[in-house]
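Q: I'm writing a short explainer about ATP-binding cassette domain-containing protein for a general audience and would like to include a description of its predicted shape. Could you first generate the structure from this sequence?
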Amino acid sequence: MNNSQEIRAAIEVENLSKRYEEVDAVDKISFTVQRGEIFGFLGPNGAGKTTTINMLTGLNRISSGQVKINGQTEIKKVQEAIGIVPSESNLYPELDGFENLCFCASLYGLKKGVREREARYLLEKFNLAEVGGRTFGAYSKGMKRKLTIAAGIIHKPEILFLDEPTTGIDVASARQIRRLIIDLNRAGTTIFLTTHYIEEAERLCDRVAFIVQGKIKHLDTTENLLDNVRQDNIIEFLSDKKSLQDKETILKKLSAYQVELFGEKIRIHIDRKTTINKFINIFNEIDCNIYEARLMRPSLEDVFVKITGIEVDEMEKDKAKGGR
Ligand SMILES: Nc1ncnc2c1ncn2[C@@H]1O[C@H](COP(=O)(O)OP(=O)(O)OP(=O)(O)O)[C@@H](O)[C@H]1O
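A: Of course. Here's the predicted structure. Afterward I'll give you a sentence or two in plain language.
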């Protein structure tokens, strides 16, 4: 690794492993997170995401390998530079929201005036001002998650670790949290997050590592991962039953393409450069009515399934119970 890479790297991981008695929870993983990135660790239950994040933040002992945060191997020396948001909240149920935030800020040595000001600011920013005086134990799941994130950033860390930030919360709260993550990143925070929601990784992350059974199966920019499957674009035309009666003529006219006809729909597999004008002309020639055209873009989900062979429903169903 050359010097310029070293300066830019927020997190460097080399051959990191964690072995529990029976299980290689994390098995010789290596990756680097650059300053200013949102880096996602995507994998099914039990893949090793939490174990990894815990080793990166000093909460779990490393079996072998090396972690550097801001070039430091000793986590204590960079404690103030990092913020940790665990998947299960670590806040005190008997303290109210404001007190919890002030307490976390005191752990980082913030003075009373500063921590109270920051706590008030964050309660406001996270739409929790009204419940700032309510005990944490009485918060809803979404409120708890937001306050836990607020607690993780009260000391303005350079690098934020988020373990499953939107698991088990409703759609609106999940969307708000994603917005907050993007805002934090735009303000300069490097983000390392774990998720088993592919859509979340696609929306948020600059780069994504697929982790399965403790190993990184693939690591690339979200753009490159999507490029893997974008050659397989499909355009779907909505027609009507009468227009689609003469299937043979339609298929003959479109014989240069892979075509599927079903119900009132015509699906045509195209490459990225194909425009839809030519199809409209063809449909006009054969008196086929078209009411709607829709480009069906493949998603990160398609890439994930292609690379790991894991069906997404399997991966997401266990944790989907709480709704998002
Ligand atoms: N304290 C422990 N003792 C023994 N095995 C453990 C321990 N913690 C985790 N494991 C095992 O290590 C593997 C990885 O677990 P980990 O919690 O890191 O996965 P994960 O990807 O975060 O999963 P999830 O999405 O379900 O939280 C699993 O097989 C798990 O059973």
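A: For your explainer, you could say: The CA atoms of residues 221 and 266 lie 33 Å apart.
Q: Perfect, that's easy to follow.
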